[in-house]
Amino acid sequence: MKKIIIFFLMILSITVFSEEYRPYLKKNITNKNLVFSAQIKDSKKVISIYKENKKLVYVYGLEGEKAEKIIVGNANKNLFKNENEIPLNENNNNKLTENFILFKIKNYTYLISFYDNYGVKENSYSLTVARNDEEILFDKELDISTVYDNLFNTNFFKKLPYDNGVVAYYITYD
Questions:
Q1: Residues of the chain with pLDDT > 70: what percent?
Q2: Residue 117: which of 132, 102, 95 has the closest Cα?
Q3: All structural domains of the chain with their residue ranges
Q4: 154-165 confidence digits (pLDDT tens)
Q5: Which pTM does this prediction carry?
Q6: Sign of the torsion angle spanned by Cα atoms 102, 105, 107, 110
Q7: pLDDT band at 148, cuts 50/70/90?
Q8: What is the per-residue burial (b if ≥16 Cβ within 10 Å, else e) of 129-152?
Q9: Eight-state DSSP code of residue 60
């Protein structure tokens, strides 16, 4: 009887975990742990990032469906950031801020980029997937009208460690 109860609890916890981490846009979910979501431009695929304590959970796939990819990011292990600021004119009064968050798993890097253009032009976001820090497998812009971002301008993001790896997959404007 004890084994049956333990088995039932395991099934229940797996079901709850898999239900919780599905790709959703913010407008279609009330989960308070969702800190980022966006739809790939010209696609039905969605990226969602959930914050669980000191971890970020990257979820990718069709909205509301079982995730195609889930990565649990831990700072200093497989979760990093990078940032860059570029003046857009000689007076340095117009600038572009580039922010990157990286989830690394095995020899793959999942990079979400945020380009804050301070009103000079429209802000933009993108998703890049690279193998071995150099070979870009996927590089798509995110649909700005679907972006929910409660991640890049937060203390959590600011406290993430910097990526010290190869920067071949960073797409910068300088």
A1: 77
A2: 95
A3: 2-159
A4: 999 999 998 876
A5: 0.79
A6: negative
A7: very high
A8: bbeeeeeeeeebebbeebbbbebb
A9: E
